[in-house]
Amino acid sequence: MSNKDKKNNSLSITIVGASGDLATQKIFPALFALFSQNLLPENTLFFGFARSTLSDMEFREKITKHLICRYTPEHSCERYMSDFLEKCFYCQGKYNSVDSFLDLYTLMREKNVSRKSNRIFYLAIPPDIFSDVAKAIGDSALVYCRDDVPWSRVIIEKPFGKDRDSSDKLTHEMAKIFTEEQTYRIDHYLGKEVVQNLLVLRFANQIFKPLWNSDYIKKIEIIWSEDKGIEGRGGYFDNYGIIRDIIQNHLLQILAMVTMEEPNSLSAREIRDKKVKVLSKIPPLKIDDILLGQYVSVKNDNIQLLGYTNDPTVPDSSLTPTFAKVKLKINNKRWKGVPFTITAGKAMKEKKTKVKITFRTPENNIFCSLGSCPPPNELIIRIQPNEGIHCNIVNKIPGKKLVFHEQRLDLSYDTAYTDHVIPEAYESLIMDIIDGDKSLFIRKDELQTAWDIFTPILHQIEKEKIKPTPYSFGSTGPKKNINE
Ligand code: BG6
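Above: inputs. Below: predicted complex with 6-O-phosphono-beta-D-glucopyranose.
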């Protein structure tokens, strides 16, 4: 924590939308994890704000169900939990009502939150009400105008609009209340441990630095899949689809971290400048660069797995893609001619997120003259599950004959770091917000650049009503490739 913040050790964290899934399943458990490690400022209080009528006790019961003692030895956990819950209060109100946020302010005063305490507002609500809520918070004079001491910060989470125009509009509306400096746009994938490690892997290891370009790298693939279907989230998902839900944000961010130039320092400005620079070199996608899919029902071991349009929350005629594979390129010197493929699919065979980097095979390899060329090296970054990094190298099988064998050099976090708990993405990101470190948050121009890559294709898909290719629930996606 910076010295500036140490002087002001009083903080209120208001979670708007406190009874929803994001708040109860992700945000409160993350806050508790930080609390139980004594990482939060001494006088931190938590205020839940939502429409449902709940007493403090009922609210506490709701969040307790999801609190996990990952950091505390068993015997002290109960104490931490009751200390934490005692600091959680609930305010019932309407999202667009100034009076309701004035009630929140009254509650804060009753709980002795100092007028000079720092304030965080976490908008864990659907994006279409972000600006109304921000306005109500602003009109109730809860936001300090400067990002100084005391400060106010707002946290919002994607989807930030549906295309470049709607995203710009949202940014513009939010900016009437919170400055860009006060705004923290979360992409929770940037908080994942292995994603945070990408800069270290690339720039702290001399063995990788010289190889990280088109002279040595043949192709890069980012692969994301989930083994679950939409499970009643159709109201949200059907309006967005897999490109807006996963690719335009989470996977594009990973791509930026894998391909950006080395920053001159670790400052948030430097890192984000370099990310924007590389993203701005990706030309907008064309229809031939994309394959869309939608999962359909299948019977597995006598269990019927329902297709996307069988979900009661999805219209029968929906053309929304639940799978997409996109091919893109980066028009700069480092990545000239290297193909990048991003694949994302719901209701697939397994849950995984990984980056696969395939290296070129050496030209004029001496072994090729013996009739068998060695396979290319691969570096695989496993973001989840089984966090780790492995490299496939070519080895000789012991014995007199020369027989190649691809062997794995494996760094698995679960065996390499047995004494460490891997923090949840939200824990790292909330801590950064308290510290005022913006390096892992999406800046306005970065968001615009990301939308520019996808907006034309999204409009074309919708205008031309392009039909996604069916694939079976639990499979590896459509049995087709881009351009077929
Ligand atoms: C969210 C998407 O951003 O990320 C969901 O809206 C997706 O559709 C989720 O399931 C995946 O997050 P994680 O951390 O479980 O990989």
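The longest strand covers residues 217-225.
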